[in-house]
């Protein structure tokens, strides 16, 4: 092939005088009498057949062996030819199809185990359900399927491997019926809420329905994920509706005051809102389970704040941690502190009469009781803790 | 109460017309008079049509002459549409209601007033509770458009109820009505070939099937229960879920661009993304229908998902390639049983035959 050299002049290699329309007779004679010349003398049916090999010619150039192959079978039977042609075409340059299939099966076995066909079918069924919208959400927008299969599955390894969360007193969470889990809040970003949700689900099989601040539902993406994950706005109407519906509801009454407090004030409980959570529990007569979380304070030690920028962006604070703006995205990796979650003994509210929620003094007293319980437990957990990271 | 005379406003539009017809078919109703500025577009059956404008006092004469004892007010419109500009729409909604209620107050024979309102009166915002009950107020006062009109209409109706305590006043706050034949801002939004959504938000939606709207109006006329009621199909659908069921592709746009797109679409007359629809498609809304069951005694035939399913089945899918591909792969794999817990498998298919 090397010696058949075509020198492009004028018409880009096409024989002719440069008009570009039709080569002259002389030029046609000069042109190499290869396949096309031979095909001309044959009937047009065979001419159409030669199209395939010519199209495949560039591929064949890389593999020197089958050079004569496409020309020879022309004389033989038609259907067999085309079948063989396709085969040779496919097997020519790339990886054979059979190998690909084997590789895929091996990979599937690797990912899904020996029962891979079954597993894959299950996974596909799940995927198709998601794609056709064939799933249910409850009235708050909670999508149990995606929460279990995706959100919790993503959070669990972080809880177990990164923070090594240790749960105590999980038996204090009621196995059924409405209950209100009240927790301290810390860590600059509400990671503690996510970990609590994952741990509650792992230990009781129940979903913790979080009550979130206004800001959560104002922000794009965050609001979407929050609703799908079972959260709703922290207002009396929603809290009572969920508790009356027999859900396990989680509330962090310190709110932004707790989560955005400076590192120097760690483990000092802030004011517990206005006690709205207590009146909701009193009205629906569900137990209040105090929860103390140790470890979350140290994940992003908040040492500074940019109030002007925070006001501009409409957020409560812009955190500055020893790592955060300085290391860029790397600074967003939380420090691997050791976490302890202790669920306290439930505080019963069903002994109070119907109008208890209308009595502000009683509401304040119960609020204080819950707050004190959490604070004392925090102190005792801190005493037991060997160090921040162990 | 036999031989009642019912006056229905807003019969030129399809929902008003079909409602008037279904009322005429009711045995306890002797006569149905349909009133509108324009003649109805379709067959009105036994309904007697009177061409009158509720914006001027002629309506009082109609009520007096025909000895009307029940008024069904359906003339609160969501879009200017054929009526013209926003000014006309407000005129029709607010001034029309005022005139109608003034006429009703003078009519001695009147015993019952049924007003079709909308859940848009609750607005939509990030500070909303998950489910609105009838006693809750919107978190932000509506300043423009349909929401403001509906709120004003309801205020006038409350005033009327105070001045005429002998009249049974039923206000029905209906969720977005949906059905194969319904033309409304929400249905034209879903009829777009490629559906824009607000980036990062996934609102909860509730729908009411058009046949359930007819049934509830008829039920309200015959039951005669005083009060305000939320009317909606059971359960909620997320917008993303609805679009997947429609098998139509969607384009997420940031909030500010979504509003701009609204005016562009409006000029092409493809859809009308009014400000209240934009907030609805951002934050969504849910209403509690406990009172509808307990006090009004009405049970919708279609859930939200079923009503939407019937609407979706009339639209050709314009997307769904991935799903078909997965389906082809799944066909080659062994059959698997549904591994979801039973709580998650409810709510599929299209049930509820319409009587």
UniProtKB/TrEMBL annotation, chain A:
Boundaries of every Phospholipid/glycerol acyltransferase domain copy: 179-296
Transmembrane segments: none
Annotated region described as Disordered, given as residue ranges: 1-87
Keywords, ordered alphabetically: Acyltransferase, Transferase
GO molecular function, one term: acyltransferase activity
Ranges of compositional bias, category Low complexity: 1-12, 51-73
An annotated GO cellular component: membrane
The keyword Iron belongs to this UniProt entry's keyword annotation: no
InterPro entries: Plipid/glycerol_acylTrfase
Top-level division of the source organism's lineage: Bacteria
CDD domains: LPLAT_MGAT-like
Keyword Transferase on entry: yes
The protein's name in its UniProt record: Glycerol acyltransferase
Phylogenetic classification of the source organism: Bacteria, Bacillati, Actinomycetota, Actinomycetes, Propionibacteriales
Automatic annotation (TrEMBL), chain B:
Gene3D superfamilies, A to Z: NAD(P)-binding Rossmann-like Domain
InterPro entries named in the record: Epimerase_deHydtase, Lipid_A_modif_metabolic_enz, NAD(P)-bd_dom_sf
Region described as Disordered: spans on this chain: 334-355
SUPFAM superfamilies: NAD(P)-binding Rossmann-fold domains (SSF51735)
Pfam families assigned: Epimerase
Positions of the NAD-dependent epimerase/dehydratase domain: 6-232
PANTHER family given in the database record: BIFUNCTIONAL POLYMYXIN RESISTANCE PROTEIN ARNA (PTHR43245), NAD-DEPENDENT EPIMERASE_DEHYDRATASE (PTHR43245:SF52)
Name by which UniProt lists this protein: Epimerase
Species in which this protein is naturally found: Nocardioides silvaticus
């Amino acid at each position: 092939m090397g010696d058949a050299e075509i020198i492009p002049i004028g018409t880009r290699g096409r024989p002719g005088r440069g008009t570009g329309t039709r080569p002259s007779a002389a030029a046609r004679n000069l042109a190499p009498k290869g396949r096309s010349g031979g095909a001309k003398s044959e009937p047009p049916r065979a001419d159409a057949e030669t199209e395939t090999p010519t199209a495949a010619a560039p591929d064949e150039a890389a593999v020197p062996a089958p050079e004569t192959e496409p020309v020879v079978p022309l004389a033989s039977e038609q259907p067999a030819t085309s079948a063989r042609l396709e085969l040779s075409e496919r097997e020519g340059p790339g990886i054979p199809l059979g190998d690909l299939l084997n590789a895929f099966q091996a990979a599937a076995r690797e990912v899904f185990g020996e029962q891979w066909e079954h597993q894959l079918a299950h996974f596909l069924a799940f995927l198709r359900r998601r794609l056709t919208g064939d799933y249910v959400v409850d009235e708050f927008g909670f999508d149990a399927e995606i929460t279990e299969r995706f959100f919790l599955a993503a959070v669990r390894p972080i809880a177990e491997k990164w923070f090594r969360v240790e749960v105590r007193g999980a038996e204090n969470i009621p196995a059924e019926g409405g209950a209100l889990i009240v927790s301290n809040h810390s860590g600059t970003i509400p990671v503690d809420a996510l970990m609590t949700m994952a741990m509650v689900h792992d230990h009781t099989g129940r979903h913790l329905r979080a009550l979130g601040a206004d800001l959560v539902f104002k922000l794009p993406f965050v609001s979407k994920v929050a609703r799908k994950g079972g959260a709703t706005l922290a207002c009396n109407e929603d809290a009572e509706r969920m508790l009356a519906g027999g859900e396990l509801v989680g509330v962090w009454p310190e709110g932004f005051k707790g989560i955005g407090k400076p590192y120097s004030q760690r483990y000092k409980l802030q004011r517990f809102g206005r006690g709205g959570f207590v009146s909701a529990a009193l009205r629906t007569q569900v137990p209040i389970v105090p929860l103390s979380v140790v470890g979350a304070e140290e994940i992003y030690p908040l040492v500074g704040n940019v109030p002007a920028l925070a006001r501009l962006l409409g957020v409560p604070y812009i955190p500055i941690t020893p790592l955060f703006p300085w290391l860029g995205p790397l600074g967003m990796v939380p420090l691997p502190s050791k976490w302890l979650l202790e669920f306290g003994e439930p505080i019963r509210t069903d002994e109070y009469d119907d109008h208890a929620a209308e009595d502000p003094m009683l509401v304040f007293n119960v609020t204080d009781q819950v707050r004190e319980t959490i604070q004392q437990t925090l102190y005792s957990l801190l005493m037991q803790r060997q160090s921040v990271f162990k | 109460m036999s031989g009642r005379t019912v006056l229905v406003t807003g019969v030129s539009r399809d929902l008003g017309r079909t409602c008037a017809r279904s009322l005429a078919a009711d045995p306890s109703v002797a006569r149905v008079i349909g009133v509108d500025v324009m003649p109805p577009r379709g067959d009105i059956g036994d309904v007697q049509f009177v061409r009158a404008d509720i914006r001027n006092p002629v309506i009082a004469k109609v009520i007096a002459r025909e000895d009307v004892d029940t008024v069904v007010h359906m003339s609160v419109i969501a879009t200017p549409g054929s009526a013209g500009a926003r000014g006309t729409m407000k005129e029709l909604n607010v001034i029309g209601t005022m005139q109608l209620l003034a006429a009703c107050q003078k009519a001695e024979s009147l015993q019952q007033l049924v007003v079709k309102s909308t859940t848009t009166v609750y607005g939509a915002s990030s500070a909303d509770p998950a489910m609105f009950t009838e006693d809750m107020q919107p978190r932000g006062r509506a300043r423009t458009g349909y929401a403001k009109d509906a709120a004003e209409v309801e205020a006038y109706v409350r005033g009327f109820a105070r001045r005429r305590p002998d009249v049974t006043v039923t206000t029905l706050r209906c969720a977005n009505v949906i059905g194969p034949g319904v033309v409304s801002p929400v249905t034209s939004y879903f009829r777009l070939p490629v559906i824009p959504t607000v980036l990062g938000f996934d609102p909860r939606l509730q729908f009411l099937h058009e046949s359930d709207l007819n049934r509830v109006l008829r039920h309200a006329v015959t039951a005669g229960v005083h009060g305000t009621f939320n009317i909606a199909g059971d359960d909620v659908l997320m917008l993303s879920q609805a679009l997947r069921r429609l098998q139509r592709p969607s384009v997420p746009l940031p909030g500010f661009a979504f509003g701009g797109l609204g005016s562009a679409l409006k000029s092409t007359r493809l859809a009308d993304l009014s400000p209240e629809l934009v907030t609805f498609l951002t934050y969504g809304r849910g209403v509690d229908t406990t009172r509808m069951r307990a006090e009004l005694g009405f049970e919708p035939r279609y859930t939200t998902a079923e009503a939407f399913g019937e609407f979706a089945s009339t639209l050709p899918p314009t997307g769904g390639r991935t799903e078909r591909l997965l389906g082809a792969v799944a066909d080659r794999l062994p059959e698997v049983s549904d591994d979801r817990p039973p709580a998650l498998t409810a709510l599929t298919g299209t049930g509820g035959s319409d009587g």
